[in-house]
Amino acid sequence: MSQGESVKTKAVFSVLAGLVRSSMNCLIGKTWKGFDTLPDGGYILCPNHLTEIDPLVVGHAIYSNGRLPRWLAKESLFKVPVLGWLLRNSGQIPVSRSSANAGESLKNAKKVLEAGGVIVIYPEGTLTRDPNLWPMVGRTGAARLALQTGAPVVPMAHWGDQELLPRYAKKISPFPRKHVTVSVGKPVNLDDLREEPRTRSVLQEATERIMEAITELQAELRKETAPATRWDPTEHGQSQTGRNFDSPEQ
Questions:
Q1: Where are the beta strands (DSSP E) in 80-224?
Q2: Are the CB atoms for 139 and 88 separated by under 8 Å?
């Protein structure tokens, strides 16, 4: 477990983790790759985003390997009865859509990293819009936090959980039992960017390196060649958020 966590946070998270682990063990078979190479201290974990259930898969994998993951989650989720209480009391970090309050989430994430914790950030920002579920273009939040704090960025890819709960599906498909593979890679090399001014071009370069590392891991899991160009929702007339993103080009 990470140092600096309150007793209440550990207790709430442990109860939730026990329920999630039991459920996931019933629903899926699993293979975890590369977890013996994870850093000992604080780090930023950047997974691809396939399905609404993959935070449970990611959390299951990280918690089962001895760490307490913390997510940057949409602020609106913290207003949902019961769920909001669980998120707050398990130490999750709300992210505001407004630029005026966005910096507060990064400050809270920095505190977790300084205490040796694990911050999970989906750099795509939402479920991939790519019609073949490849990682799409990323947003700069993970890169910004990494360059501000010096924390390592660990890429992660997972595959198979989209069969349990397809993207934006309303119910899971438990039969036949699915198998999920989760793979983590070596930290992304951002050393040459850490002393640079955090300009838009620097943040975009760091983000591109993160997305490339995630895409390479997923290509290995799928045993396929990734597209030469990452899917960009804005180029296909799609919204950045929400379920209604279908376009004629899909």
A1: 93-95, 118-120, 153-159, 178-184
A2: no
Q: What is the distance between the alpha carbons of residues 203 and 206, in angstroms, rounded to a whole number?
A: 5
Strands 93-95 and 28-33: unpaired
Distance, CA of 192 to CA of 153 (rounded, Å): 14
User: What is the Cα gyration radius of the chain?
Assistant: 17
Q: Which residue has the tokens 């990611």?
A: 58
What tokens were used for 76?
Answer: 């609106």
Strand order in the sheet with 43-47: 28-33, 178-184, 153-159, 43-47, 118-120, 69-74, 93-95
* Helix H or strand E encompassing 246: none
Residue 70 bridge partners (DSSP): 119
pLDDT in tens, 132-168: 999 999 999 999 999 999 999 999 999 999 999 999 9
Which token pair is 152? 């390592």
- Mean pLDDT over all residues of the chain? 91
DSSP E strand stretches across the chain:
28-33, 43-47, 69-74, 93-95, 118-120, 153-159, 178-184
Asked if residue 104 has pLDDT above 60, the reply is yes
Q: What is the pLDDT of residues 12-21, one digit of tens each?
A: 988 999 999 9
CA gap 167, 78 in Å, rounded = 22
Kindly compute the dihedral angle of the four CA atoms of residues 212, 143, 5, 56, in this order, to the nearest 10 degrees. Answer: -40
Provide the pLDDT for residue 207. 98
Cα angle value 59/60/64 (rounded, 5°): 115
Q: Specify the pTM.
A: 0.93
